Amino acid sequence: MKATDVYNIAIALPSEELSLLYDMLGKKVMSIPDSGIKKRRKCLPRFTIDDGLRYLLENIIDKNKEQDDS
Question: Which pTM value belongs to this model?
Answer without folding.
Answer: 0.40
